[in-house]
Design goal:
The chain has 465 residues and is α/β, with parallel strands linked by helices. The chain is 48% helix and 17% strand. The chain has a seven-stranded mixed β-sheet with strand order 3-4-5-6-2-1-7. It has a six-stranded mixed β-sheet with strand order 9-10-8-11-12-13, sandwiched between helices. It is flat, with a radius of gyration of 29 Å. The structure holds guanosine-5'-diphosphate and magnesium ion (MG). The site of guanosine-5'-diphosphate has 21 residues, from helix 8.
């Protein structure tokens, strides 16, 4: 679809969530929005109303009887979300009113909107670029301050502007190379290859930084995975319960009680964490427990943070297994939690801490007691601090797999540009690789796009967005 293509049909859908609410809002967008709503509306003529005004009146049902009192808000093209004429109709939020309102609008000439069609129209009319449009979906899905911040940067165009700046630098770089090609035979002063290399190096750095931010960006968007692992009876399930202030997981002194991974989303500070309480790691002949242990290992592999739990009153076996467990995921942040501090002497705890800190200098060692809620807050603070440290001076992060993939392609292409400049190869080849860097960046913001890609993106939205 070309940006600026205008639709000639008018669409409608309920934009508030499915179900009963105090108010429901239907959105009507398209060239005939005012005429259609006017045909079932008793109140001031919307066709003649000024843009950005709200009006009180009544609205008819499919039989021409009064359905409800309603407030309509008028947005005239191009100053609306979709860039088209838009009327938002607020009614009482019963399921029946919502259904009847949509039926009436369809009878009067609207078509029911497809999933994501409003946002797709906003993109088509040039109101939003593609990354901004995707930001709309992320904004609606955001469940924490950090996810909201990332979505907001994307929706408000900070991210697109950053990409546009990079694209411009690449275009400039290409023209410098082309200048060299055009006038290579003559006595003209060019930017040296060294200077060009400096520009390419700086672009490479920006691209890879942005691409690499996806690891934490995806975690921030979906909930940062934290696996609570360790031997049976260390207090892993008790820790999940202490963090959620709930009896989510079964706690018992019977070894092997937890057999499946128990997932819980918890908001701490700016982030949403996805805690995974796992089956304790031990040798077992129980088939079901064995499957649970495999799932524990899987959770550990995918986690961004591993909390390795140790029962301080019988630490020996736990300590034996730390190495093996940590090697499952060398990328993860490691917290070793020495639990049950309430039943061991402070001397023993100090000794144990000392011992483990010396052996695992990269890990954070904490003494806790889930039973007495001791240092659980400190553990929570540590979690947020670890994620804060990842996103330091990272205003912009990538939270979208499609963007990360495009950035990776661009990073590989700019690497070839650097190599070409270093090896002094012909400008033709370098110019080609610069275009290969620009192309994926243009797909992120949708300057280059295909109908298939747009369909994939927008059908993931709900109806009404
Ligand atoms: N004294 C003491 N006991 C604890 C503490 N945390 C857990 N427990 C006990 O240790 C046993 C095993 O706890 P559980 O959470 O099921 O361990 P898991 O197998 O690692 O999930 C239970 O009897 C808990 O009550 C603690 O901080 N102090
Ligand atoms: Mg358990």
């Amino acid at each position: 679809m070309e940006p600026n293509s205008m639709n000639n049909d008018t669409i409608c859908a309920i934009s508030t969530p499915a179900g009963v609410g105090g108010i429901a809002v239907a959105r009507v967008s398209g060239p005939d929005a005012f005429r259609i709503v006017d045909s079932l509306w008793h109140g001031k003529s919307l066709s003649n109303a000024a843009s950005h005004t709200a009006h009180l009146g009544t609205i008819d049902d499919t039989r021409g009887n009064m359905l409800d009192q309603a407030v309509t808000t008028v947005f005239k093209a191009p100053n609306s979300f979709t860039g088209e004429n838009v009327v938002e109709i607020s009614v009482h939020g019963s399921r029946w009113i919502q259904r009847e309102l949509i039926a009436t609008l369809c009878k009067a000439g609207c078509r029911l909107a497809e999933p994501g069609e409003y946002t797709r129209r906003a993109f088509a009319s040039g109101r939003l670029d593609l990354a901004e449009a995707e930001g709309v979906a992320d904004m609606i899905a955001a469940n924490s301050r950090a996810a909201h911040r990332a979505a907001s940067n994307q929706l408000r165009g900070h991210y697109s502007r950053y990409l546009a700046k990079m694209r411009q630098q690449l275009v400039d770089l290409a023209s410098l190379i082309e200048l060299e090609l055009d006038f290579g035979e003559e006595e003209v002063e060019f930017a040296s290859r060294q200077q060009l290399n400096d520009i390419a190096t700086s672009l490479h750095k920006s691209l890879t930084r942005l691409r690499d931010s996806y690891a934490s960006g995806a975690a921030i968007k979906q909930g940062i995975p934290v696996a609570i692992i360790g031997p049976t009876n260390a207090g892993k399930s008790s820790l999940l319960n202490a963090l959620t202030h709930d009896d989510r997981a079964i706690v018992s002194d019977i070894h092997g009680t937890t057999r499946d991974v128990v997932d819980d989303l918890i908001e701490i500070g700016d982030y949403q964490f996805r805690f995974q309480d796992t089956a304790g790691l031990r040798e077992t002949h129980d088939t079901i427990e064995q499957i649970g242990i495999e799932r524990s290992i899987n959770a550990a592999r995918k986690a961004r943070i591993l909390i390795y739990m140790v029962d301080s009153s019988s630490p020996d076996k736990a300590i034996e297994n730390i190495d093996q467990t940590l090697s499952l995921n060398p990328e993860a942040h490691i917290i070793i939690a020495l639990n049950k501090a309430d039943i061991v002497t402070p001397q023993l705890t100090a000794q144990l801490t000392d011992n483990i800190e010396r052996q695992y200098p990269e890990a954070i060692v904490l003494t806790i007691s889930t039973k007495q809620q001791q240092s659980i807050d400190q553990l929570s603070d540590t979690l947020t601090r670890l994620i804060d440290s990842e996103s330091q001076d990272n205003d912009l992060i990538v939270t979208n797999a499609r963007h990360a993939q495009a950035l990776d392609q661009a990073a590989q292409a700019i690497e070839r540009v650097k190599a070409g400049l270093r090896d002094n190869i012909s400008g033709d080849f370098i110019a080609h690789d610069i275009r290969e860097t620009i192309h994926p960046l243009a797909t992120i913001t949708g300057q280059i796009t295909t109908d298939d890609l747009l369909a994939t993106i927008f059908t993931r939205f709900c109806i009404g967005k």
